[in-house]
Amino acid sequence: MDSKIGLVAAGAAAGAAATYVYACGTRDANSTAAPKPPPPPTEAVACDEAAQRVVCYGDSNTWGFDAFSPGAAMRRYGEQRWPRVLARHLGPGVDVVEEGLNGRTCIVDDPFMSDYDANGRRTLAPMLHSHKPIDVLVIMLGTNDLKKHLNLSPQLIARGAATLANDALRMDIWRSTPRVLLVCPVNIRQPPASCRFAYSFDGGAAKAPACAAFYRAEAETLRVAFQDANEATAIPDPRHGGDGIHLSAQNGADLGAAVAAKVREMLTPDAFRAHVLPGDEPLPVAGGKSPRVSQK
User: Fold this and answer.
1) Please, what is the Cα angle at 256 between 255 and 258, to 5 degrees?
2) How far is Cα 243 from Cα 259, in angstroms, rounded to an integer?
3) Neighbouring C-beta atoms of residue 253, cutoff 10 Å
4) CA distance linking residue 60 with residue 84, whole number of Å
């Protein structure tokens, strides 16, 4: 019995050591080069469902964390969540799947996240395979990577988000052509001292504005679609409500509409012919046909 306990303890220690090295950003000597565009998937996933599927992979701002309502309890938005807004704009011809997790990072381990695995890379494959076939994958991650103790530069944060996109492009989860939308998250503001996340995000507001340019460059390298959420909305000053990190209900409305406009360009037009919200432009159909369009 003692020998078994010793083996378990040794294994746990080894795992902790490996996690520590990963969290500190140790990289392979050859990893400085930008990732090459992947080959096409080996096989498309056939499905009898008529609806096209959009998966939103993100953190607490995709989950719908409400930092604006009074009270100590953790609150989640309902229909104000941006993926729900996205779904309403796209209509019944599109199935929008929400995969938001509080605290999720792109590819690094957060040593203070102990309740569950918040490393976005480790959970990506099982999440996506559970929802295949997928037509469009929307990735909006990087806010938690701004945390002080993770010590990541804007360039490395963008590289982490691009790593997820690159991983997804290589998976056999797609109905046909892989389509990824890489979204640079909304810039955070310095949280007030009363916020329980204030120390963790100390300095993050100064780094955030530099991220968009790196996200765009990574998206261009991978030849995937890109969207800067800062062009659609801005997190309110926490002196007037919220914590400077999480989206307001209005932010959700703005972002959901903006993402919907981009996703419309990436899906077939058939899904939208019977559902156009006020202010939405119908996707043009060339030559009476409805081919899938490119990501850009």
Assistant:
1) 65
2) 23
3) 20
4) 14
Q: How far is CA 295 from CA 75, 179, 214, in A?
A: 35, 6, 19
Please give the structure tokens belonging to residue 47: 């499905």
25 confidence band (pLDDT: 50, 70, 90): very low
Nearest to 174 by CA among 224, 120, 139, 137: 137
CATH of 53-265, one of 3.90.180.10, 3.90.78.10, 3.20.20.140, 3.40.50.1110: 3.40.50.1110
More confident residue, 72 or 98: 98
Is residue 139 classed as helix, strand or coil in its secondary structure? strand
Per-residue pLDDT reduced to its tens digit, 170-229: 999 999 999 999 999 999 999 998 888 899 999 999 999 999 999 999 999 999 999 999
| Packing angle, helices 120-131 and 154-169, rounded to 10 | 30
Strand partners, 193: none
